[in-house]
């Protein structure tokens, strides 16, 4: 039903505009241009949205994503006037200040902020993920007369978002998936930091999105035609078989003396400009952060009260749903608590040394198969490498529009296509939806680097997404150095708040999945081999779940060799060679640095005690190993094309080669006092 608008709407819009201007001015830092231009659109969008500021996590709320995150003064101002207690006037005054709730780009922890944005284009993809999650949740649990999930995702984005390649990846997939629950609002202000968009961005965005399979609606006057913006949203909601892009022509910095120029994009307005714009909008130029009571009252009547009513009606509907559909109701209720199904971890496979050697990518497939049916919130996919990543569970259905005949929205396997970066950012959106969604996505480890921006935001936001990263070393062989990761693990291990697993056998693979799925706020990368690996004597799921453990103890050891993944089995054989030469050695398997680092100091010193040097062995960059090891044997150059075993031999990663390195280390440290690398002041 179309909204009606009056003078109070314009006063409310101008209040939002000036709150943003004052916040940027108080910080003497920020972006006033987009908030001034987009306040009318934000006002109309939020009047259309279904949400409850008093219950910001309500699962059936409409989602709003600010992909052009630099415009966050707009979002914070909107959240304040819309009744979010998390953003008071004092919080607006503390915009961009240390430890404030209103940082320079939106962060996921603040109620009302659905996803962390800032790097342009990421929010577009997050919105696609939110829409996928909603479509799956609705298809899985809605019943006739009981639509417990019917929300929309709104994404606001700018020219910069559309120039980033990742937005193309996600938008293309969204069109293919016919996500009618996704509405994107494009701020077409024709300005970039460098000047007008005609210096670098002259494509026809409307035709581009039509080619993706989107509905495109153009609003010529986004500065003041509220009815046209509302009509576009109404039309978008009626288009159920494709996402919609509303191309909104706006004036950046609307009302400023510098409106329509790049100068108003990323610098506070000058004092005289602020004074004149306040007068122009009917406000006292001497008052800052002014919100007329009638604006608060207006939003209370138009947004807050209806939102609370919608939430209450949903609660009643869900209560009836639980009575009518006890199994599904209990499952939804469990998912909303963020807990996994009881006993799921008992389904993970375990192994003994008598079991055959298997590639860890295959062990991953076996683990996923064992738990997939038990965990309905597990939703996977691959960037066009399903037969190589082995990420599709037996019997699983593809997430596809039913009209394609390829699957349905109940399906929990997503064909991402060759879109690694898009996949990563979409997974962040799926995780951000709530309902305990646990997204995983497969590609080669080396190509997780394509998605580094999304991985970083997973860690920063605390989205527990899982990367199934196969072909994790020179062991992949013939594809050569373009596909062989060297620096990749060092890079991702350097990120805060991410578990980077490189399991050595089946028990360690099971441990990786156990920790990854139990993690509520930490993403995981599970690096897996193409080649077969033996099941190791001394490994257990419980030990591996600590991130590192002593695989083979020797009280008389003259050296500890620590390793990960496919090299651990080779190290075990190297230690046998050392024993034949009269050199006792210990073996430590360290599948995940981050999990190990969280263990007690006492435990870590049991694994890496004083008294003997530690040699790390890994067929990747040695960068970062000095945290644990006195010496490192790795590869600090690019790999080589050839058969996997031959490439390993070429670089010296054989039992004999490793034993020789160990002898050199033992000889060097003979007679010296050796302290654990973990024994440090800081």
From TrEMBL:
Documented EC number(s): 2.2.1.1
Q: Which residues form the active site?
A: 420 (proton donor)
Q: How is the cofactor bound?
A: Binds 1 thiamine pyrophosphate per subunit. During the reaction, the substrate forms a covalent intermediate with the cofactor.
Catalytically driven reaction(s): D-sedoheptulose 7-phosphate + D-glyceraldehyde 3-phosphate = aldehydo-D-ribose 5-phosphate + D-xylulose 5-phosphate
Q: Which UniProt keywords apply?
A: Calcium, Magnesium, Metal-binding, Thiamine pyrophosphate, Transferase
**Top-tier EC class:** transferase
* Gene3D superfamilies referenced in this protein's UniProt entry, alphabetically: 3.40.50.920, 3.40.50.970
Spell out the residues of the site Important for catalytic activity: 31, 265
| One biological process term in Gene Ontology | pentose-phosphate shunt
PROSITE patterns xref list:
TRANSKETOLASE_1, TRANSKETOLASE_2
Q: Which cofactors go with this protein?
A: Co(2+); thiamine diphosphate; Mg(2+); Ca(2+)
The residues the record assigns to binding substrate are 31, 265, 361, 388, 471, 479, 483, 530
Cellular component aspect of the GO annotation: cytosol; nucleus
Do you know which InterPro entries this protein is assigned to?
THDP-binding, Transketo_C/PFOR_II, Transketolase-like_C_2, Transketolase-like_Pyr-bd, Transketolase_bac-like, Transketolase_BS, Transketolase_CS, Transketolase_fam
Q: Does the keyword Zinc-finger apply?
A: no
Keyword Transferase assigned: yes
Record-linked PANTHER family:
TRANSKETOLASE, TRANSKETOLASE 1-RELATED
Q: Which family does it belong to?
A: Belongs to the transketolase family.
Q: Subunit structure of this entry? A: Homodimer.
> How is this protein named in the record?
Transketolase
This chain's source organism reads Hanseniaspora uvarum (Yeast)
């Amino acid at each position: 039903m179309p909204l009606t608008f009056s003078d109070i709407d314009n006063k409310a819009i101008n209040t939002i505009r000036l709150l943003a201007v004052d916040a940027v001015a108080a910080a003497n830092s920020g972006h006033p241009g987009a908030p001034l231009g987009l306040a009318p659109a934000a006002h109309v969008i939020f009047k259309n949205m279904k949400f409850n500021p008093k219950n910001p996590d309500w699962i059936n709320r409409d989602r709003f994503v600010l992909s052009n995150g630099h415009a966050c003064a707009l979002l914070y101002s909107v959240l304040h006037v819309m009744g979010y207690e998390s953003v008071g006037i004092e919080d607006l005054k503390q915009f961009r200040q240390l430890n404030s709730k209103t940082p320079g780009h939106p962060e996921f922890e603040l109620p009302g902020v659905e996803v962390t944005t800032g790097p342009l284009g990421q929010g577009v993809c997050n919105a696609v993920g939110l829409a996928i999650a909603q479509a799956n949740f609705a298809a899985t649990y809605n019943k006739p007369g009981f639509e417990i999930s019917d929300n929309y995702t709104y994404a606001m984005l700018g020219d910069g978002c559309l120039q980033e390649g990742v937005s193309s990846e996600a938008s293309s997939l969204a069109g293919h998936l016919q996500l009618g629950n996704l509405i994107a609002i494009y701020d077409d202000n024709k300005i970039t930091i460098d000047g007008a968009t005609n210096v670098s961005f002259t494509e026809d965005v409307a035709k581009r999105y039509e080619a993706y399979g989107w509905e495109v609606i153009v609003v010529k006057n986004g500065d003041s035609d509220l009815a046209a913006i509302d009509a576009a949203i109404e039309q978008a909601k009626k288009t159920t078989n494709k996402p919609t892009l509303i191309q909104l022509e706006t004036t950046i910095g609307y009302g400023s003396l510098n409106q329509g120029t790049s100068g108003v994009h990323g610098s506070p307005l000058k004092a005289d400009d602020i004074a004149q714009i306040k007068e122009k909008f009917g406000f006292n130029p001497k008052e800052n952060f002014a919100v007329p009571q009638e604006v608060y009252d207006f939003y209370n009547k138009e947004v807050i009260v209806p939102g609370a009513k919608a939430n209450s009606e949903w609660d009643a509907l869900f209560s009836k749903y639980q009575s009518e559909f006890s199994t599904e109701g209990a499952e939804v209720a469990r998912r909303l608590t963020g807990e996994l199904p009881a006993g799921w971890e008992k389904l993970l496979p375990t192994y003994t040394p008598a079991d055959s050697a298997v590639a860890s990518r295959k062990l991953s497939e076996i683990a996923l198969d064992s738990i997939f049916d038990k965990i309905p919130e597990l939703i996977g996919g691959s960037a066009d490498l399903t037969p190589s990543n082995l990420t599709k569970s037996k019997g699983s259905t593809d997430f596809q529009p039913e009209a394609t005949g390829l699957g349905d929205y109940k399906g929990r396997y997503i064909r991402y296509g060759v879109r690694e970066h898009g996949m990563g950012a979409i997974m962040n959106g799926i995780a951000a939806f709530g309902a305990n969604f646990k997204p995983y996505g497969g590609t080669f480890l080396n190509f997780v680097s394509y998605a580094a921006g999304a991985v970083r935001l997973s860690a920063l936001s605390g989205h527990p997404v899982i990367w199934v990263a196969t072909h994790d070393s020179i062991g992949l062989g013939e594809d050569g150095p373009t596909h062989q990761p060297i620096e990749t693990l060092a890079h991702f291990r350097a990120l805060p708040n991410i578990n980077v697993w490189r399991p050595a056998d089946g028990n360690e693979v099971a441990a990786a999945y156990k920790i990854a799925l139990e993690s509520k706020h930490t993403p995981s990368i599970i690096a897996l081999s193409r080649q077969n690996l033996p099941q190791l004597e001394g490994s257990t799921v419980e030990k591996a779940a600590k991130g590192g453990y002593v695989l083979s103890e020797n009280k008389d050891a003259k050296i500890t060799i620590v390793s990960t993944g496919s090299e651990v089995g080779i190290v075990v054989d190297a230690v046998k060679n050392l024993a034949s030469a009269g050199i006792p050695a210990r073996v430590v398997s360290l599948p995940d640095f981050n999990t190990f680092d969280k263990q007690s100091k006492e435990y870590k010193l049991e694994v890496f005690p004083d008294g003997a040097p530690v040699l790390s062995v890994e067929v990747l960059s040695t960068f970062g190993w000095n945290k644990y090891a006195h010496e490192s044997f790795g590869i600090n150059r690019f790999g080589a094309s050839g058969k996997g075993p031959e490439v390993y031999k070429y670089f010296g990663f054989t039992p004999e080669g490793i034993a020789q390195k160990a002898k050199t280390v033992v000889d060097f440290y003979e007679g010296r006092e050796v302290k654990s690398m973990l024994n440090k002041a800081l």
